[in-house]
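User: Can you recover a sequence for this backbone? Please restate the input before giving your answer.

Assistant: Of course. Working from this structure:
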């Protein structure tokens, strides 16, 4: 993988500060970052593990049917939207050795676009994001989460489920149980500290969640 490590730096320097270049080494369906350039874009560092999205891609073995996956949406911490592309590094027998990802952060260019729009449209239209036709909440749900922290990943999933329901003060017991069931189906409670986060979001005690989970297991 040594030649690819050099390529990471070359691409990072050539493409510029708006592009993050990441190289994973893969061993037995597990992987970690062995080189990264402009990691400030996603907040990742050498030694960090695969993202949940990438793990799922490995489980589904999508690399068997393609050499690369270009131009899909990603999201980093703080709802920072990225344009992502992935290249699968394989040996002569089509076994996966590594993954190289290039993530583009276009935030700086969005500001330039706003300035250009301001030159030819009334200020009130630009200020109201009249020309912003992307539903960012929907877009976030359709995007890869490139934030590496498993805790942040758990919080993201918990928020995604809980936010579909009324505020905690207006939730019925049945709705709270349904939320716990949805999160349990997503294996969230296998992640350390997730039970605490759910209890805080639903404004109930951790023993109450344990009781809900116990009842759900008995029903199954």
């Amino acid at each position: 993988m040594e030649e690819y490590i050099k390529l990471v730096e070359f691409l990072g320097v050539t493409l510029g500060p708006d592009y993050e270049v990441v190289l994973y080494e893969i061993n037995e369906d597990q992987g970690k970052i062995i080189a990264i350039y402009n990691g400030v874009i996603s907040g990742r560092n050498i030694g960090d593990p695969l993202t949940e999205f990438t793990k799922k891609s490995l489980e589904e073995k999508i690399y068997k049917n393609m050499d690369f996956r270009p131009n899909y949406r990603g999201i980093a911490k703080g709802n920072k939207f990225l344009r992502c592309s992935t290249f699968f590094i394989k040996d002569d027998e089509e076994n996966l050795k590594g993954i190289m990802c290039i993530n583009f952060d276009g935030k700086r260019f969005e500001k330039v676009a706003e300035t250009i729009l301001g030159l030819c449209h009334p200020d009130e239209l630009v200020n109201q994001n009249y020309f912003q036709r992307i539903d960012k909440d929907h877009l976030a749900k359709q995007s890869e989460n490139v934030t590496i922290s498993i805790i942040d990943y758990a919080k993201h999933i918990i928020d995604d489920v809980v936010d579909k329901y009324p505020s905690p003060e207006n939730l019925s017991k049945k709705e709270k149980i349904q939320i716990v069931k949805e999160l349990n189906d997503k294996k969230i409670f296998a992640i350390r500290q997730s039970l605490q986060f759910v209890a805080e979001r639903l404004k109930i005690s951790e023993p109450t969640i344990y009781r809900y989970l116990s009842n759900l297991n008995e029903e199954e």
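That completes the design. The longest strand covers residues 80-90.
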